[in-house]
Design goal:
227 residues; two-stranded antiparallel sheet; 54% helix; 5% strand
Length: 227
C-alpha cells in the first residue's frame, strides 16, 4: 500500500489520506459505499444526484480535519474525530435512508447500529469466501487500536445522540451546559448544530442536485469556529 493517496473530490478538491486513514478507506467495508447513493432515489427527480456515501464520507473526513486544525486539537483527539468522520456512514444500507426506514421498521436497527457492529466485526459485509480471498482477518476496531486510536471513542462519536438541530436553540441553560460541556465538543464535530457531516452534505447535495439552497461559506465557518 502506498504511503499516502490524494483523491480528487468534486466539491473540496484534493483530499489527502495517509496511514490508518488510507487503510480505512481501502477496507472493503468502506469501498462498499461506492455503490450506495447518498440521496437514495432522489436521482429519479434530480438526474445529477448520483453521488455516493463514499464521496460524502471523504468530504466529511476532509472537513473534520480542517475543523480539528482550526481548533488546534491534540493529536489523539484529532485522529479520533477524523476516523469517526470517515467511518460515520459505514453502516448505510443500499438506497441509504430510503431503505433504512424499512429496516428500522422490520428489525429495529438504524445505519448507526450497523456502523457499530461493522466496526467491531459483529457483522460482515463480505462472504466468508470473499474474506478469505482478500485475506482479511482483522476488524476495523483492530486496525484502529493498532494505530493508537480508541475504537470505543470512535464508536461513541459516531453513535452519539443529542437534541435535534431545531431543539438545540431551545434548550434550558442547564441542559445546554450538560450537552455542550466537557469533551462533548468532539461529538459536536460529528453530530452538532454545525458539524462536518452537515457541512459536507449541504455543499455536496447542492452541487449534485443543482439546488443552491444548501450552499454555505465553509471557509468563513472554519475561520470563526471555537471552543
Amino acid at each position: 500500500m502506498p504511503e499516502f493517496k490524494v483523491v480528487h473530490d468534486s466539491v473540496h478538491g484534493s483530499v489527502r489520506l495517509e496511514g490508518v486513514f488510507l487503510e480505512l478507506l481501502e477496507r472493503p467495508e468502506m469501498q462498499r459505499l461506492h455503490g450506495v447513493h447518498q440521496l437514495g432515489l432522489a436521482h429519479l427527480v434530480f438526474p445529477g444526484a448520483n453521488h455516493t456515501r463514499l464521496e460524502h464520507s471523504l468530504g466529511t473526513y476532509f472537513i473534520a480535519e480542517k475543523m480539528a486544525n482550526a481548533l488546534s486539537l491534540p493529536h489523539d483527539e484529532k485522529n479520533s474525530v477524523m476516523a469517526a468522520a470517515l467511518l460515520h456512514d459505514i453502516g448505510h444500507p443500499p438506497y441509504s435512508h430510503t431503505l433504512e426506514v424499512v429496516l428500522n421498521d422490520r428489525i429495529g436497527l438504524t445505519h448507526v447500529d450497523f456502523a457499530k457492529a461493522i466496526i467491531l466485526g459483529e457483522i460482515s459485509t463480505l462472504s466468508n469466501r470473499t474474506s478469505k480471498l482478500l485475506e482479511i482477518s482483522n476488524t476495523i476496531a483492530d486496525l484502529l487500536d493498532k494505530s493508537g486510536i480508541s475504537p470505543e471513542i470512535v464508536i461513541d462519536l459516531i453513535t452519539a445522540s443529542g437534541p435535534s438541530s431545531p431543539d438545540q436553540t431551545q434548550l434550558e441553560i442547564e441542559d445546554g451546559q450538560t450537552f455542550f460541556g466537557g469533551k462533548n465538543y468532539l461529538k459536536q464535530m460529528i453530530h452538532g448544530p454545525i458539524d462536518a457531516d452537515q457541512m459536507d452534505y449541504l455543499l455536496r447535495d447542492a452541487h449534485y442536485t443543482g439546488v443552491a439552497h444548501g450552499t454555505i461559506d465553509l471557509d468563513r465557518l472554519l475561520q470563526t469556529i471555537g471552543i
